[in-house]
Amino acid sequence: MYNIRKKTKVVCTIGPASESYDQLRALIKAGMNVMRLNFSHGTYDEHLLKINNILQIEKEHGLFVPIMLDTRGPEIRTHLFEDGGVELIRDETIRIAMKEVLGSKEKFSVTHPGLFDDVAIGDLIKIDDGKLNLIIEEKDEENRELVCRIQNTHYVTNRKGLNAPFARLSLPYISETDRNDLEFGCKNHIDMVAASFVRRPEDVEEIRKVCAEFGREDMRIISKIENREALDKIDEIIEASDGIMVARGDLGVEIEPEVVPVYQELIIKKCRNLGKPVITATQMLDSMQTHPVPTRAEVSDVATAIRESTDAVMLSAESASGDYPVEATKMQAKIAETIEQFLDYKVLAEEAYETSNRSVSDAIATSVANTANLIGAKAIFCFSETGRSGARISKARPICPIFLITDIRETALNMNLYWGVNSIFIRHLPQFIEDMEAVSLVKAHDVGLKSGDPIIITGGTPTGSGKTNFMRIVYVNKIKDI
Fold first, then answer.
1. Which of the residues 199, 224, 270, 392 is marked catalytic?
2. Helix, coil or strand: residue 34
3. For residue 1, is pLDDT > 70?
4. Are 182 and 71 spatial neighbours (Cβ–Cβ below 8 Å)?
5. Which residue among 99, 286, 414, 417 has the highest number of C-beta atoms inside a 10 angstrom radius?
6. Is 282 noted as a catalytic residue in this protein?
7. First and final C-alpha spacing in the chain
8. Is 142 buried (19+), middle (13-18) or exposed (0-12) by CB count in 10 A?
9. What is the pTM (predicted TM-score) of this model?
10. Is 77 a catalytic residue?
């Protein structure tokens, strides 16, 4: 049921357009590898329905689809407006109040009263993903209101996001709402948390501590990079995280949109150097919310991220609420499969080793990738408890799929975010190379390989040593001897 022809993973945001059992099954068949739940929308009952549906599909088909909880994060939003929205006119003034009021053409309020103290005269305020820009001209200390000049005409509606690109906000990183969401996730089969608006490595550790309180010390934390503060601390944040999401929507509001591609490429490279998975996200196939085919520019955008070596590409509204969720997923998978045929796998393997610790395990991972490229291997079978050897091989970007065989369910789930890795769960890992070979040949048959196809088997023996120390080339025709 998996699409193993592509190596770049597809993360699908699940919402009203895709939450049913049948739609989720169709998305997996189309190429979905990770299910994302955006906790800025929906109730716990609605999210639980999606979780139960995917767990049922996993059980019926022996699949592993990790579930990602995307937090709200320390966001600022407008309160309500008269009649649901008002048109603000360029060059007029507007007041931003810290005390909640019903918004009008003269004044509106925001959810963070501390904004008054965080910003300065001359600062830029962006609202509704940057569609409305305001410049602070005066701070009314008596009423604690910001007097702003409207830079462009825009109709603004209820609860729109607010960004202050040049301010250091005093918001606590984890709100009570986020804490409740994390508790729900820890108790309901969430495998990874996409931490919104991370500003520094301490934010990542704060999320880890909360998850540990609810019994999930193993929770994988994917830090979303979407503000200037995060860019200033990018190396430390990557080091503290289990993975990164380049969240280009809010990032493109916080910084100049023309430099977003520069940071995208930089972050992808930094993550790959450290062997950590990276997701490229936001508006990748945005027009497919309402159209069955993407624009040529959108196809090029997805292709660029894949050429830059992203581990995963993501769909947001396209799969959550759009008219064509399955078609959008198929399109991302098709683009990935096509672009991957033209990657320089020799160079990719060399880059991986140059940026590694050059341990025995790193050398074997690079050798596995190089050998796969040289002999035209059809698959790599990697035996691992922790998944670390699979991550090393993934970093080396071999030309063929990587099948990670493990006896730990959490490893099977977490590794399915990595480029090229497909997890296979077995009850007990074999102890000896000959037994690993026998298991690999059976699994090669299961995934559709043909007699005579070359495969590579790698792992560590004795099992559990935590060190990959062998590689073996085998041909699938030995399946007859089992």
1. 224
2. strand
3. no
4. yes
5. 414
6. yes
7. 25
8. exposed
9. 0.94
10. yes
pLDDT at residue number 116: 98
Q: CATH 3.40.1380.20: which residues of the chain?
A: 345-481
Structure tokens at 259: 């430099």
Give the per-residue pLDDT at 389: 95
The model's pLDDT over 65-124, given as tens digits with 9 standing for 90+, comes to 999 999 999 999 999 999 999 999 999 999 999 999 999 999 999 999 999 999 999 999
Which residues lie below 8 Å from residue 390, measured CB to CB, with a gap of 6+?
382, 384, 402, 404, 415, 418, 421
- Give per-residue pLDDT as tens, 319-375: 999 999 999 999 999 999 999 999 999 999 999 989 988 888 889 999 999 999 999
Instruction: Please check whether residue 15 is in contact with residue 328, taking contact to mean a CB–CB distance below 8 angstroms.
Output: no
Mention every residue, 6+ apart, whose C-beta is less than 8 A from residue 10: 31, 32, 33, 34, 312, 313, 314, 315, 329, 332, 333, 336
C-alpha–C-alpha distance, residues 471 and 132, integer Å:
58
In single-letter form, the type of residue at position 86 comes to V
Mean pLDDT taken over the chain: 95
Bond prior to 16 in cis (omega within 30° of 0):
no
Q: Respond yes or no: is residue 208 known to be catalytic.
A: no
CB atoms within 10 A of CB 137: 12
Q: Where in the chain is the domain with CATH 3.20.20.60?
A: 9-73+173-339
What fold, for 345-481? Pyruvate Kinase; Chain: A, domain 1 (3.40.1380)
Instruction: Report the distance separating Cα 317 and Cα 283, nearest Å.
Output: 8
Q: Which of 282, 310, 366, 411 is catalytic?
A: 282
Give the list of residues 6+ apart from residue 382 with CB closer than 8 angstroms, or none: 368, 389, 390, 393, 402, 403, 404, 405, 458, 459, 468
Is 36 a catalytic site residue? yes
Residue 249, classed as helix, strand or coil, is helix
The rounded distance, in Å, linking the Cα atoms of 270 and 292 is 35
* Catalytic-role residue among 29, 72, 77, 107: 77
Strand partners, 405: 383, 424
* Residue 174 token pair: 């984890």
CA–CA gap between residue 148 and residue 1 (Å, rounded): 55
The more confident residue out of 361 and 211 is: 211
List 6, 9, 25, 36, catalytic entry: 36
- Give the domain 9-73+173-339 fold: TIM Barrel (3.20.20)
Fold of 76-163: M1 Pyruvate Kinase; Domain 3 (2.40.33)
